[in-house]
Specification:
The protein is built from 3 helices and 35 strands. It is mainly beta. The strands form 9 sheets. Strands 16, 17, 18, 19 and 20 form a 5-stranded antiparallel sheet that branches. The protein has a 4-stranded antiparallel sheet with strand order 3-2-1-35, with no helix packed on it. Strand 18 and strand 19 form a beta hairpin.
Amino acid sequence: MKSRFRKLWLLLGTTIFVMLAVGCNDTLRQFIVPVPAPTGNPQPLANAIVLSTNPAPSGNGSNMHIDVSGDTNSGVVPVGENPLFLGKTSNNVFVINSGVTNPVPPVLPDPPTVSVYTALLPLQAIVNTVTLPTTGPDAVQTPVAGTTSSSGNIFIANRDSDNVSVISGSVFSVTATVPLPAGSHPVMIAGNSSNNKIFVVNQGANNVTEISTIDNTIVKTIPVGSQPIWGVMSADGLFVFIVNQGDGTVSVIDASLDIILPCDASTPSCLANNSIKVGTTAAPSPNFAYYEPTLKRVYVSNTGENTVSVIKGNGFDLGSNPQVLPAKLGDVQLSGAPTSVTALSDGTKAYAALGGCPAGVNHVTLLSILAVPTNCNGTLVSVIDAESLQQIKTIPVGVGPISIDSSRDASRVYSVNAQDSVTNGSGTHPVGTISDISTSTDTEVMRKLPPQQDPTCTVSATVFCPLQSPFMVRTFP
């Protein structure tokens, strides 16, 4: 009998619990955590990394990490003073910090540094700080950009000292310096882990210095167009695309033959010096190029007009008949002047940040241009269909979209809106923001704020804590 009563009470208790759960479903739902079924293909870890300067006196900049799959902030990593470039190697990210060169007393000078840490561990990040030499034969002035190679080392272009610093990827110190001819003014280095060469873009000499990363020696100097400003290597390491801002062209280097490839003379964009004319006007002023690895195309942002140029980036063969040569596939008309461009890894779409900045802006001049709050007044990101090479949509974002990148899984695009603002009870405040864009709907799913200048400041309805100034985003891996 006791056993029967025990069973009845158990049944009755279960029934009451189910009735309560149904009646209070809205209350209980927030506590229910679904457990996904086991799968052999877990979501790979990926971050969007946003680099910001810190306007606070003696304030260090930072990298804010955003988890791609969860759209959540996954950590903030402090870097050095006055950061200006964000790069990545196979496992690490590195930030070039200009330091403080001409301080106003009582502020003391601070040499340029490079901050290096494991890319996908922001909460456990151990930041290795490499101080660049400022005296002696290896002294550097004005480091502006960097890259890596198959050696795993980091290479830094030092514009005003005409040299390249080599940072060991294992001991995190400067182990060599490669001198360049006086007046070279290197501003960018093209390279990746697929090649044991790097290609230094010399804006002052209108050429590219090819360096072997096996022994850090110069292999060759290759003439290119006028005032080259950017370079990108194909994912397989076979070709390098040099953006010549001065004459509005792109030069294509065969990384095996160490030559400028001739362009397809049957196309009107092929010029006599074998460079490819980009844009549709006399002064397109291109500033940046992005290599898309599936269709193997190069997307070039033209700051002097409202276009992105698309260049064929693979299959070049000088020995075939007919030869397969570099050529421009088209110029995509946009709704504003682009500052940066990215493309999805599946090859379906590209996205251009329509920053609306002055023509000729580039990664070297960007921070000085942003010092004027109204210099970059665009508010859109263009969506480009890769098949038709047409703008198919614009996405409203914050003011001044100047940097853009896409996740490796092609699910997200991130735009840094450097001259945006926010409003709270204390008023409207100029603040850079980060737009998180879903590529399935091509809409902004959320807009994020950068880290605070002072992490101890407490925000309230009437208190606004000054924020850092974001200006560059890169996804990893």
